[in-house]
Specification:
Length: 890
């Protein structure tokens, strides 16, 4: 059917995307009506120029005339009514939008989403992390897609997961279509799957460096003064290694352009020129803050450093790729450039997600988007009313509930920081802690902060963000395995006697996997565990942690949001019972056994229907059966999951290993029969409850028999309600708050003392001083970096590099230099420890003791005794040396 499709365009890129959609197979059946909203003339002129080259004669209509005299606020207020009039006058059937959170786009979305199908198409990288998140306002990228469009077309799984699980009630229609102009580009596909960095450069040749600037001040992501301060410092540091050019963003305002012209020794490129892969190939290194430019640098084979200054909250995520590197300071940036300059080799990220997590590669992106547009329908707002039986059961008498309400307010921490890797409802890891923090906020004005460790590069920055926090709650062990700074950060917090708790979600299967794949960090984590207060989700998990040296783990279980509109499943199974599983598609979740049970039921002629809800992961072995007897539904929003549970009869948790799966709790809330393997955490709270069965042998036949048995019995309402109350929000909040008030694990040795003892044992055994998971770099290059930072007065990065050197070796010059830096900061204890290490490290004894004496003078009264000793030892060394020379002369 022929349609009239409007496309709202705000920039040059939108014109290019529109052209690709208009050239998709089947697009000629429709009439496209590009439209924009501009008053000052610049945006309209840019769009008109691009349209004349890309849209084959199709004109872009402007909702405003240039001669209109409207204030900016009036212009924005008028945008909604004018787009509505345009849609009515032109008989528009559909509208495509590229941003529903921009000033213009949000007005368009607000005006139209209830009247005609609006399809939102992702036009740039949106999967950013944030160093600090509060329960209130976030960056506009976080809210992308929240205007209730008819459908959203996204680049890859990362954005889809964010939209689907941004909040407990998110329910968008999300389609992973891939990116127009990127997903089908063979150069980019090759760079993503088989990165081939350029041949090694000749070492010490000057680098050609390009800094791809962003309008951080104009976008209010960083104060203008801070933006310029860090940009100037970065350019000055990079200039030591070659020629530096700055390419301003096309939307940069004139004031910043004038400032750039005043940077000494820097070439400023034309901001209006588009720099594609061909234009980047002549450079040896590119630097930016956060930008879709990474796609062009990958095409060109040029290494890119993503620089995140400490004050910048929004951060480009770490992508595990040989040509991409995230750094958090000017010093780290200089170190990476210095290594490339010295060796011709670029040190890319060795952590992070693969590029395919952010960008799906396929050839028919435009066709898929057009299909979504053609099939889109206006989405009705979700009804606020609740169905009968949907209100979660209240626990206890009114008096008991009133007492519990008082207790809930009794001892909440005044300030709580949650450390984790991402904070959304996409997995069961984040859901309990998000639910808990929201409950705390409902009770009292607690200062709660979410710290995403994947957004940080330096331990110092996280410590600064935590300096005024009472309680630190680490959400799962994942940050200790996946973050390069996780273990070091917790060690620093413990050594400072901070109140640190670990809320664990892992069991033996995950621990074994991570021990194999992140061996060094896993060993670091095991050394830290006995010094932490560990909170567990099951008694079996607590037993496992006791075996790892945790003295007193506390079982707090977990919780899930309780929604008033949750519909309960039918009490009696239908003629064709429906059996459902919710979880990511991976071997640990039991893909194979679920498929084989479905095949077994079919072979026995049973009319059972099997469905699996969850996204596919790479963790599927080639031997795993993916049965056609199962309906594989993919990832669904939480609202859709609830609907599917209500339409089912049995929740079959096929996982071989799960600590306390939240999906089972949700199934209990909706009164589904439940079947699980006996070794998962659910067994300890559901064992003996009518409506629940477990199987002791992890085999298809045992699981099949458990399903057949549970279908023949009714759910016990009283027992299910009791289990539901165990996991309800007030009960969980009370347990968690009480646990966070517990004392720490006692007189455990602090990290520094434990590390010293381990170092002594390792020295006796002839083993390494300490295992560290770091990006490999030769020690002589680190020594060069350390000297450069000291010479330029860059204390923070000198300490960072010096610490890394001392983890591998203990050269006297670095020990003395680090002691001097610590002494200058008033850190007398640390300086004395470094001087003591220097005293026994060897070398020219007279010179060493002279240097110790010099540094000890900086320590005031505490260093007086050290200085006197050093003087005596220096004189003794000189006399001994002179005597030896005299004896040699005889």
């Amino acid at each position: 059917m022929s349609m009239r499709i409007a496309v709202f365009i705000e920039n040059r890129n939108g014109v290019g995307l529109t052209a690709r959609i208009m050239n998709a197979p089947g697009a000629r059946e429709h009439t496209f009506l590009p439209v924009t909203a501009d008053l000052d003339g610049d945006v309209g002129r840019w769009i008109e120029e691009e349209a004349s080259a890309r849209l084959d004669g199709t004109r872009v209509r402007n909702l405003f005339r240039e001669e209109e005299t409207l204030a900016h606020a009036q212009f924005l207020e008028e945008t909604g009514p004018r787009i509505s009039e345009f849609v009515r006058a032109e008989a528009v059937d559909r509208l495509i939008l590229f941003n529903d959170q921009s000033q213009r786009g949000s007005r368009v979305a607000r005006a139209l989403t209830g009247t005609l199908p609006v399809v939102l198409v992702q036009d740039g990288h949106l999967d950013f992390h944030y160093k600090r998140l509060r329960p209130g306002l976030r960056d506009q990228n976080w809210y992308y897609g929240s205007s209730n469009p008819a459908a959203v077309c996204v680049w890859g799984p990362a954005t889809a997961h964010h939209l689907l699980y941004r909040t407990a009630d998110a329910d968008p229609a999300v389609h992973i279509t891939g990116a127009l102009g990127h997903s089908d580009d063979p150069d980019l596909v090759r760079a993503a799957h088989n990165p081939a960095p350029r041949p090694a450069r000749t070492s010490r040749d000057p680098l050609r460096i390009i800094v791809l600037d962003q309008p951080l001040g104009d976008q209010r992501k960083l104060a203008a003064g801070q933006h310029r301060e860090y940009l100037r410092a970065a350019c000055e540091a990079l200039a030591e290694f070659g020629e530096v050019a700055v390419k301003p963003h096309p939307s940069t305002l004139s004031g910043h352009l004038r400032w750039l012209e005043g940077l000494p020794g820097i070439t400023v490129l034309d901001e209006s020129a588009l720099l594609d892969a061909a234009g980047l190939e002549s450079y040896d290194l590119a630097v930016t803050f956060f930008s879709t430019t990474y796609l062009q640098t990958l095409r060109a084979g040029v290494p890119l450093v993503l620089f995140s200054p400490p004050p910048l909250n929004i951060v480009f995520p770490a992508v595990n790729h040989a040509l991409l590197r995230n750094v958090g300071s000017v010093g780290e940036l200089a170190d990476v450039a210095g290594q490339l300059h010295r060796t011709g080799k670029f040190a890319g990220n060795n952590t992070g997600e693969p590029l395919t997590h952010f960008l799906t590669f396929r050839e028919d992106v435009a066709e898929r988007i057009l299909t979504v547009v053609e099939e889109a329908e206006v989405r009705e707002p979700r009804a606020a009313s609740e169905s009968a039986g949907a209100v979660p059961a209240r626990s206890g008498t009114r008096a008991e509930r009133a007492l519990r309400a008082v207790r809930d307010r009794q001892t909440p921490p005044r300030s709580l920081a949650v450390l984790g890797l991402g904070f959304g409802y996409v997995t069961g890891v984040a859901i309990p802690v998000l639910t808990y923090t929201q409950a705390l906020l409902a009770h009292s004005p607690v200062d709660i902060r979410y710290i995403d460790l994947s957004a940080y590069c330096r331990t110092e920055d996280v410590l600064d963000a935590l300096k005024d926090i009472d309680v630190v709650l680490v959400n799962s062990l994942a940050p200790l395995w996946r973050s390069a700074i996780g273990n070091e950060l917790l060690g620093e917090l413990v050594s400072d006697d901070r109140k640190v708790f670990l809320y664990a979600h892992e069991t033996e299967h995950v621990m074994a996997y991570e021990a194999e794949h992140h061996t060094l960090r896993h060993k670091e984590m095991l050394r830290l565990l006995p010094q932490l207060q560990v909170l567990c989700v099951s008694t079996a998990q607590a037993d496992m942690f006791r075996g790892l040296g945790v003295t007193d783990p506390v079982v707090v279980y977990n919780t899930v949001p309780q929604d008033a509109h949750r519909v309960r499943a039918r009490a009696v199974p239908g003629a064709e019972p429906r059996i459902v599983m919710v979880g990511s598609m991976q071997d640990r979740k039991g893909l194979d056994i679920f498929s084989r049970v479905a095949e077994l039921a079919h072979a026995e002629g049973l009319p059972w229907r099997f469905a699996w809800i969850g996204h596919r992961t790479p963790r599927i072995a080639s031997s795993t059966l993916i049965s056609d007897r199962v309906t594989w539904m993919g990832a669904l929003s939480r609202a859709r999951v609830r609907e599917e549970l209500a339409a089912s009869d049995v929740f079959f948790l096929s996982s071989v290993d799960d600590p306390m799966p939240l999906s089972v709790v949700e199934a209990v809330q909706q009164r589904l029969r439940v079947v699980t393997y006996r070794r998962v955490g659910s067994h300890e709270v559901l064992d003996g409850v009518p409506g629940y069965r477990s199987f002791a042998d992890y085999t298809p036949r045992a699981a099949f028999e458990a399903l057949r048995a549970v279908l023949g019995e009714r759910v016990s309402e009283d027992d299910y309600r009791e289990v539901e109350e165990l996991f309800d929000i007030p009960a969980f909040t009370a347990r968690m708050t009480a646990a966070l008030g517990l004392p720490g694990p006692g007189d455990m040795p602090h990290r520094q003392d434990a590390a010293a003892a381990e170092a002594g044992e390792a020295a006796d055994d002839g083993g390494p001083e300490e295992l560290r998971a770091v990006i490999p770099q030769q020690i002589r290059h680190l020594n060069e970096d350390f000297k450069r930072h000291v010479r330029t007065g860059n204390v923070e990065d000198a300490l960072r590099v010096g610490t890394e050197i001392l983890r591998r070796r203990q050269p006297v010059d670095v020990l003395i230099g680090m002691a001097e830096l610590r002494a200058a900061r008033g850190q007398a204890k640390e300086a004395c420890q470094l001087l003591a290490a220097a005293a026994i490290a060897g070398g020219d004894r007279g010179r060493v003791w002279s240097e110790i004496s010099r540094v000890a003078a900086l320590l005031g009264a505490r260093g007086r005794a050290i200085r006197q000793l050093a003087r005596k030892e220096s004189v003794r060394a000189q006399v001994t040396h002179h005597s030896a020379r005299l004896r040699k002369g005889d």
